[in-house]
Amino acid sequence: MTSEKALAADGCVVIVGASLAGLRAAEALRTEGFSGRVVLIGDEPHRPYDRPPLSKQVLMGKWAPEKTELAGEARLAELGLELALGQRAVGFDAERLRVDLEDGSSVEGDGVIVATGARVRHLPGTEGDPGVLTLRTLDDAVTLRAAILAAGPEARVVVVGAGFIGAEVASACADLASEVTVIEATDVPLAPILGEEVGAACAALHATKGVALRTGVGVERLVAPKDGKPGEVVLADGTVLAADMIVVGIGVLPNLAWLDDSGLLLGDGVECDEALFAADGVVAAGDVARWRWRHGPFDERVRIEHWQIAADSGAAAAHSLLAGRAAAEPFNPVPYFWSDQYGVKLQVLGHPGPDDDMVEVVEGSLESQRFVALYGRAGRLSAVVAMSRPRQLMAYRPLLVAEASWDEARAVDLA
Questions:
Q1: What local confidence, expressed as pLDDT, does residue 178 receive?
Q2: How far apart are CA 23 and CA 18, in angstroms?
């Protein structure tokens, strides 16, 4: 049975998830002087790799898949990690700190870091259908790239979902296929995150490369392309779209199934406290972690699917585990996210959401696709969104760190 005390430097830490968060956790353990065993378990056969380039450089053929690797063989050896790659965790006992693996073996530690990330959502009835493509893993990116090239320049591509991944896939396909259509069930893409005005500005990017965007309509059913024959996507309004390639990008779900009988509290992720502890001796990081985030006047439970949050929470989870629950510090980041679409970079600093009651464009204009927009609630700056304005965006980072007021943010001189 574990306690709230610090972890012994010569103990054993099991990291489940050979992801960005898992790797950063391992690096932080070593940086802080942990000399014991570190076991890194991953369900994919690949060494830890970077996900953002998958929908950008890899899909466009600008990078070879191996360039996404975050740590090569030499670096992993330097960290002294015991690797169990291609091994899926199938069970966990939080009291005994025991992880059960798919091959029937198990490993116990003095501390466990859960970093199993998320998996793609599927349209009902399409999971496992090779003709309905998704993009989450390195293998997905390689498969999708090959499918785009095989379909040829005259291909008709239908992308279901106009979120960040769907938009990035559509952007890549626009340069490689003759006809691309994006289907979005909401009236305004990204509105729940960015609001309707900025969401509409993002939606307008599709038209710059001739991509058709259908909003406010869902998918009734689809028939996947097979044996060289085109498929079709039938919309709820009766429209039938012929498709030589179908890609679904409708979000992700945290990987929790292996934790069902673990004793951990599960919801929209592994439920953690402000220092990322899910139980004594157990912390979580990355896309799978839902933690108590106290910042300024806000006290909320969040799960944020950002590259930067994965990296920072991996390191923070390791620090918390080493310090022990009684002494661990709260994880209080300034989230940052970016998306490359149609030659335009969209950047998000902070955490915009449906509770924001103030949105104001303070630089440029939405129509010009060069702007800075502030988001606020309860009289505080909560986020900044910029399109093609990286320098101006970063001017607001110190204000988010300082939990500045709305009036202080509006007074910033961007000249």
A1: 78
A2: 6
